[in-house]
Design goal:
This protein is an alpha+beta fold and 190 residues long. It has helices at 2-31, 57-67, 72-79, 93-112, 168-175, and strands at 50-56, 81-90, 116-123, 126-134, 140-149, 153-163.
């Protein structure tokens, strides 16, 4: 019985410590200049298809260690990252209009916070905005992609941490983020 109680105490203490570390990581991420709060953009309950990716520091460091021999440059970038967040979901016309209003609000917020818009597509049934945030040392500190295609899907991506422009496409391949394909091939911002 004593062993069981000891094991339970150790497990509870480990969970408590781990939850505090994760809470501290969340606060650090939210204060980072490359973080954008997409919490107001909820995946609709009736969305037929959806993908949610939320990968934080510890798991990114694990992926960095695994890819070190295969791709040292990508591994080095992954070690400096804090968060990869991807939300993709199917939408109808009504959802698209609601989301466009929310994207416009986020768009204005990003411009006020000196994010640089590197891609803007505004067509009748499609809207894509890609932003990059640079830190005070002119290093890429964040990437945001917001894409809405009427009667199809909405995609929201936020990558937080020190990023290497030349590795962005590889990051898309590694985490299956199609919106990053070919981005590195375009002219490097700044």
């Amino acid at each position: 019985m004593k062993k069981l109680i000891t094991v339970l105490v150790v497990v509870l203490l480990t969970c408590f410590i781990f939850s505090n570390v994760m809470a501290n990581d969340d606060e650090k991420i939210k204060k980072h200049p490359g973080y954008v709060d997409f919490d107001k953009i909820e995946i609709p309950k009736d969305a037929e298809e959806s993908v949610e990716v939320y990968v934080r520091g510890p798991l990114l460091k694990l992926v960095a260690a695994v890819t070190e021999k295969e791709d040292p440059a990508l591994s080095k970038m992954l070690e400096k990252m804090l968060l990869i967040r991807v939300n993709t979901f199917s939408i109808d016309d009504k959802m698209a209009q609601d989301l466009k209003t929310k994207v416009d609000a986020i768009d204005k917020q990003l411009e006020k916070q000196n994010w640089e818009k590197v891609v803007r597509v505004k067509e009748r049934h499609e809207r894509v905005n890609i932003y990059i945030k640079f830190d005070k040392k002119d290093r890429m500190a964040g990437l945001v992609i917001m894409a809405i295609e009427d009667k199809d899907e909405a995609v929201f991506v936020n990558i937080v941490g020190e990023l290497d422009w030349t590795q962005i496409s590889k990051l898309g391949d590694k985490f299956d983020i199609d919106e990053l394909d070919g981005l590195s091939d375009e002219k490097k911002p700044r």
